[in-house]
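User: I'll paste a sequence; please echo it back and then give the predicted structure.

Assistant: Echoing your sequence first, then the prediction.
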Amino acid sequence: MSRRVLVVCHANTSRSIIAEAVLVRLLRERGVDDVEVRSGGIAPYARDGSLVSLDARLALREVGIELPAGAGATDLKRQRHLLAEADVILVMTEEQRRMLDAFDEARGKRVLTVRELAGETGDIDDPSMKDEDVFRHCRDEITRCLTDGLDRLLEGG
């Protein structure tokens, strides 16, 4: 049976999009095909179909990940089934973990920050409205944390 990982951030236009794409690649490189990865935003301003940040697209392109032309954000307030179906929810910040408390569908789920997955503490800050180097740093931090925490994610521990 496949497992489902949901990556959450505020608007689902930068951090969670980057994390979803990187995690899919890491799983593919490991030959893991029984883990489904999705992402979404939980902030009041998250909207289905919002454009993915151009800087996030460019940061991913630099590491050989091309997002589909039509890729857009997912609003978890409207797509609550994704929360209900998730086995693990990865968030970028402690604030997002608290925001999940408002969603009955997330109760009892395993929720970790991306840094916790890697055995660390702290948040992955939002790079929006900042320069390309901030997006690169964000991408690299997310990639490092997911790489370091991949075994923990796959073990369910």
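The longest strand covers residues 3-9. The CA atoms of residues 36 and 114 lie 17 Å apart.
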